[in-house]
């Protein structure tokens, strides 16, 4: 088995605040192989974006990595000096942000923004760089790329801009792409196109993708494997088919039941009562137990279960083992 | 079902809610204050100076403006040395008329602070009123007021103040000019500063105007004046206070500048600025203390008020949190 | 594009009309000063005058005509550069102004240069090295620059450099050389020396303002998503700071800076008084003290033209720099 492109091992990110030290990322581990798309899903504040920022080395101080390792193609990158890390960005690791409106510098043409990235990482001439820039725009589906290369970001629609952003993330030929909510700020009709584009490009180039989102539909559509995060910890991880149809963690089950997926027909959606706890006020025991319909005495007191010490799939003392597909609510 | 109810154990007593003072002390605002040594020092300095100014008749060794106590022979005595003629010694020396510099500074401080506060008060009252009217009544009133504000804003406030002072001086017969100078000064600085209050209040009024409590008051039939005063005004005051603090710092500096230029407090009722103007004349003849001490006092005052205002603005700025 | 062109034209016309309105109002104020303050007759005729003298003079000066007519005549004269005779000096005001203008303009130029260069440079420096020691020192020092009244800075500089150290003169322009209608201090050593302290005094406040503004704007820009994205693409810090951040910083900076620099000429009043610099500022203050209305009115109107002009130019400049405002937005 070849080395995975990305290997995150027991990653811990901490933020010292006035009220104590918070852990937005607590013991997170996963691997992503070349050409594979790992979906990272969870509610806002679960720590998904923070993990992505940690991998690419863009944590905003005072947040910092305090434990664990990050390996890119087998090499440790979390302890690299700043300049080495910078060279990795764009060239080995690409990132796509959520809002295409604010991701692009409004005062520079997209051609300029593309060529500067290419020239920074690849050893080519300016003319060659421009050619590649046009080719990159073409690949992401921008019509009349050669003409539009001199346009400014505001001259494009939201969907087009996100395509430009994808082109920018991929133009220096990275091995890993972190996509942080790439479709959240887009119209529904455009979302599917962007997801399909991302999938196609990454499969064709063999790029590993970490797809962060809170939208289960996107996961179902695009991901090969999925990791579910809750309050900074990994709740469940596994192949997407398995996790979505036969979830083992009560939280995942709750998420699936509250997500309108085509396969479920028009049943009433169930909501998970309550809200994800804030990092300053994590409950004792399992972080999910106050909202868990199956919570037992052990869940209330034993310190948060660790996925590795559980069955390796779900961080739960009493994982759901129903192999049967999800019941329709109310049946 | 009722069985289960009776079996539910009593809950533990709820710990006492923190008192209001406790909550205030723990609030973000005072926390930031407690952690900033600069803010605390600035606050202390300002308080001391205000106290000194208020109590000046009691603290000052002499009243520098009572001709009866003045002795010209005392003139030009350096600080803390015995005068060769009268044998008196003065903490910070004397000026050309024999006035004790320390006393003149105390009285000057009083005038500086008085004009500063009064001017800001004037600007605030005027600006808030016009802002309320503009925001609430709209139409022509709003247009006129805001256009006037725009025109005035094209020019730096100090220039406007100079102009107002000049015009007022021109209108006043010469024999009264010294007496009314302080009041004209307050008017000039106040009138040059109303615009920022008006703008902020107008903006806030426009927002409040559409809220339910205003609609309700209108339905009951309250008069516009009452609505503006008792309902809208309390809700638009927050930003006004921040502006007022900063305005105070600016007003004090404006007053000092105008007095220094000779278009402010006259030598008969000198403020710190006037004292500096007088002192500059004696720089080269060697009586440096007549200039230096008033200058240092103004420096400390200006710095403290500015630091306080600066810190206040940062502390109350939601964006920086 | 036609649409965009029309919009710009409409905007320009509206702004110009606004400016003209402001000037007319100022003209009205200036004229009112003339009409209602003091008695010009008193100032021009001596004690020994007869009623017939007064009447003749009134007729000659056109003081018996209705207010609007006088106002228009006043404006007409002003447009031709005729502001009447100074009450104090008995000479045409325009002549006095022309004579003293070079002094103020040279001073303003030097101060402005210092303020811009120092302000932008230090602003960028303290924004980039946000938490460094030197940045903190500079910021603290800048607080002093903003808090202290200009005249106090001037006085303290005089005390230090002229009285104690005796390196620089404490008043006046030094030797000046007359070239055509202009008198310059740049060509003589004493002239150059005399320029130093006043320029620092006048420029310091502006420089601190510009510095703090550039810093604030740049910090704001550096927080933006497109800067994050630039970093995520592995661009060098230098490129991020100067190519991306600075350009976006300058847009709002230019507006305010333009206004600030314009006001240098007005603030020169204070510096000129401190240093007895024979410019139009000192002239104005003396005029206020002596209630020399013609000089006051003339200065007022000239300053207005300058301020209004600067406001207008800066507004139009904004348009030119930000491509988003030039073309109509699509999508």
Sequence-ordered SSE layout with sheet pairings:
The complex is a heterotrimer of chains A (331), B (321) and C (331).
Chain A (H helix, E strand, L loop, with lengths): L5 E12 L2 E13 L4 E5 L6 H9 L7 E9 L2 E2 L5 H7 L4 E4 L3 H4 L6 H12 L4 H14 L5 H4 L9 H13 L5 E5 L7 H18 L2 E6 L2 H7 L2 E6 L2 E7 H6 L4 H8 L39 H5 L30
Parallel strand pairs in A: 3-8, 3-9, 6-7, 7-8
Antiparallel strand pairs in A: 1-2, 1-4, 4-5, 9-10
Helix pairs in contact in A: 4-5, 5-7, 7-8
Chain B lengths: L1 H6 L12 H7 L1 H8 L1 H18 L1 H4 L41 H37 L1 H15 L3 H15 L5 H15 L2 H16 L2 H9 L3 H38 L10 H9 L8 H27 L6
Chain C lengths: L1 H35 L3 H5 L6 H11 L5 H13 L13 H36 L4 H15 L2 H15 L12 E3 L2 E3 L4 H34 L2 H8 L4 H39 L4 H11 L2 H29 L1 H4 L5
Antiparallel strand pairs in C: 1-2
What are the defining features of this structure?
heterotrimer; A: 331 residues; six-stranded mixed β-sheet; four-stranded antiparallel β-sheet; 21% strand; B: 321 residues; mainly alpha
Brief characterization of the structure:
Chain A has helices at residues 48-56, 82-88, 100-103, 110-121, 126-139, 145-148, 158-170, 188-205, 216-222, 240-245, 250-257, 297-301, and strands spanning 6-17, 20-32, 37-41, 64-72, 75-76, 93-96, 176-180, 208-213, 225-230, 233-239. Chain A is α/β, with parallel strands linked by helices and 331 residues long. Chain B is an all-alpha fold.
Could you explain the architecture of this structure?
The complex is a heterotrimer of chains A (331), B (321) and C (331). By secondary structure, chain A is an alpha/beta fold. Chain A contains twelve helices and ten strands. Chain A has helices at residues 48-56, 82-88, 100-103, 110-121, 126-139, 145-148, 158-170, 188-205, 216-222, 240-245, 250-257, 297-301; strands spanning 6-17, 20-32, 37-41, 64-72, 75-76, 93-96, 176-180, 208-213, 225-230, 233-239. The termini of chain A are far apart. Chain B is elongated. Chain B is built from 14 helices and no strands. Chain B has helices at 2-7, 20-26, 28-35, 37-54, 56-59, 101-137, 139-153, 157-171, 177-191, 194-209, 212-220, 224-261, 272-280, 289-315. Chain C has helices at 2-36, 40-44, 51-61, 67-79, 93-128, 133-147, 150-164, 189-222, 225-232, 237-275, 280-290, 293-321, 323-326, and strands at residues 177-179, 182-184. Chain C is built from 13 helices and two strands. In chain C, strand 1 and strand 2 form a beta hairpin. Classes of the chains: A alpha/beta (331), B mainly alpha (321), C mainly alpha (331). Chains in contact: A-C, B-C. At the B-C interface, helix 8, helix 12, helix 13 and helix 14 of B face helix 1, helix 6, helix 7, helix 10 and helix 11 of C.
């Amino acid at each position: 088995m070849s080395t995975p492109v990305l290997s995150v091992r027991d990653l811990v990110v901490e933020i010292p605040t006035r009220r104590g030290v918070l852990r937005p990322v607590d013991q997170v581990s996963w691997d992503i192989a070349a050409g594979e798309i790992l979906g990272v899903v969870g509610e806002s504040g679960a720590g998904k974006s923070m993990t992505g920022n940690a991998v690419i080395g863009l944590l905003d101080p005072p947040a910092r990595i305090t434990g664990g390792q990050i390996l890119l193609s087998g090499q440790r990158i979390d302890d690299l000096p700043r300049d080495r890390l910078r060279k990795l960005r764009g060239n080995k690791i690409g990132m796509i942000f959520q809002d295409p409106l604010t991701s692009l510098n409004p005062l520079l043409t997209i051609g300029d923004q593309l060529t500067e990235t290419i020239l920074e990482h690849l050893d080519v001439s300016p003319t060659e760089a421009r050619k590649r820039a046009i080719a990159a725009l073409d690949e992401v589906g921008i019509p009349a790329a050669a003409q539009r290369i001199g346009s400014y970001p505001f001259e494009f629609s939201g969907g087009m801009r996100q395509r430009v952003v994808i082109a920018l993330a991929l133009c220096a030929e990275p091995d890993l792409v972190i996509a942080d909510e790439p479709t959240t700020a887009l119209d529904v009709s455009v979302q599917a196109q962007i997801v399909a584009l991302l999938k196609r490009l990454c499969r064709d180039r063999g790029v590993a993708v970490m797809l962060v989102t809170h939208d289960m539909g996107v996961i179902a559509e695009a991901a090969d494997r999925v990791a579910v995060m809750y309050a900074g910890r990994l709740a469940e991880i596994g192949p997407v088919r398995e996790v979505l149809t036969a979830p083992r963690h009560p939280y995942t089950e709750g998420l699936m039941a509250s997500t309108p997926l085509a396969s479920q027909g028009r049943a009433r959606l169930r909501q998970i009562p309550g809200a994800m706890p804030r990092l300053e006020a994590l409950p004792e025991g399992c972080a999910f137990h106050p909202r868990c319909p199956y919570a037992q005495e052990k869940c209330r007191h034993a310190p948060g279960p660790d996925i590795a010490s559980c069955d390796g799939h779900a961080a739960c003392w009493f994982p759901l083992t129903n192999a049967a597909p999800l019941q329709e609510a109310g049946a | 079902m009722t069985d289960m109810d009776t079996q539910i154990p009593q809950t533990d007593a709820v710990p006492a809610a923190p008192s209001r003072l406790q909550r205030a002390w723990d609030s973000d605002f005072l926390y930031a204050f407690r952690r900033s040594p600069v803010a605390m020092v600035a606050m202390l300095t300002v308080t001391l100076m205000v106290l000194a100014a208020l109590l000046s008749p009691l603290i000052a060794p002499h009243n520098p403006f009572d001709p009866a106590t003045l002795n010209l022979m005392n003139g030009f005595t350096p600080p803390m040395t015995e005068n060769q003629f009268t044998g008196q010694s003065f903490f910070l020396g004397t000026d050309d008329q024999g006035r004790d510099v320390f006393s003149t500074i105390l009285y000057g401080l009083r005038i500086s602070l008085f004009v500063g506060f009064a001017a800001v008060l004037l600007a605030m009252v005027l600006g808030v009123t016009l802002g309320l009217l503009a925001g609430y009544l709209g139409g022509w009133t709003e247009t006129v007021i805001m256009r006037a504000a725009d025109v005035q804003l094209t020019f730096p406030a100090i220039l406007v103040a100079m102009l107002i002072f000049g015009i007022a001086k021109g209108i006043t017969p010469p024999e009264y000019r010294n007496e009314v100078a302080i009041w004209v000064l307050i008017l000039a600085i106040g009138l040059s500063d109303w615009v920022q209050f008006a703008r902020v209040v107008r903006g806030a009024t426009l927002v409040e105007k559409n809220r339910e409590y205003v609609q309700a008051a209108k339905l009951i039939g309250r008069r516009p004046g009452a609505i503006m005063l008792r309902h809208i005004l309390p809700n638009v005051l927050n930003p006004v206070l921040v502006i007022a603090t900063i305005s105070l710092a600016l007003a004090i500096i404006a007053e000092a500048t105008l007095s220094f230029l000779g278009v402010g407090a006259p030598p008969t009722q000198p403020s710190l600025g006037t004292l500096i103007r007088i002192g500059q004349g004696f720089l080269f003849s060697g009586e440096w203390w007549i200039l230096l001490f008033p200058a240092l006092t103004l420096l400390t005052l200006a710095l403290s008020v500015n630091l306080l205002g600066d810190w206040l603005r940062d502390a109350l700025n939601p964006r920086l949190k | 594009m036609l649409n965009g062109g029309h919009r710009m034209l409409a905007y320009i016309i509206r702004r110009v009309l606004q400016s003209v309105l402001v000037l007319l109002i100022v003209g009205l104020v200036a004229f009112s000063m003339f009409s209602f303050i003091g008695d010009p007759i008193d100032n021009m005729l001596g004690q020994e005058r007869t009623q017939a003298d007064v009447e003749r003079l009134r007729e000659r000066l056109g003081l018996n005509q209705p207010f609007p007519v006088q106002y228009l005549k006043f404006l007409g004269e002003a447009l031709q550069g005729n502001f009447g005779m100074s009450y104090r000096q008995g000479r045409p005001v325009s002549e006095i102004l022309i004579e003293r203008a070079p002094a103020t303009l040279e001073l303003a130029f030097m101060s402005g240069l210092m303020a811009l260069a120092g302000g932008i440079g230090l602003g960028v420096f303290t924004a980039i090295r946000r938490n460094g020691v030197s940045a903190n020192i500079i910021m603290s020092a800048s607080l002093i620059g903003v808090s202290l009244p200009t005249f106090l800075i001037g006085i303290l500089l005089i005390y230090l450099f002229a009285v104690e150290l005796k390196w620089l003169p404490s008043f006046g322009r030094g030797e000046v050389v007359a070239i055509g209608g202009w008198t310059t201090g740049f060509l003589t050593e004493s002239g150059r020396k005399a320029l130093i302290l006043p320029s620092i005094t006048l420029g310091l406040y502006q420089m601190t303002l510009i510095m703090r503004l550039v810093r604030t704007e740049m910090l704001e820009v550096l927080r933006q998503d497109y800067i994050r994205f630039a970093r995520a693409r592995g661009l060098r810090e230098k490129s991020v700071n100067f190519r991306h951040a600075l350009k976006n910083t300058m847009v709002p900076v230019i507006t305010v800076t333009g206004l600030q620099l314009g006001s240098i000429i007005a603030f020169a009043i204070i510096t000129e008084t401190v240093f007895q610099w024979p410019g139009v500022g000192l002239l104005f203050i003396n005029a206020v003290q002596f209630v020399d209305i013609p000089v006051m009115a003339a200065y007022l109107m000239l300053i207005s033209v300058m301020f209004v002009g600067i406001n207008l130019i800066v507004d139009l400049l904004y348009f030119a720099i930000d491509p988003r405002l030039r073309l109509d937005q699509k999508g």
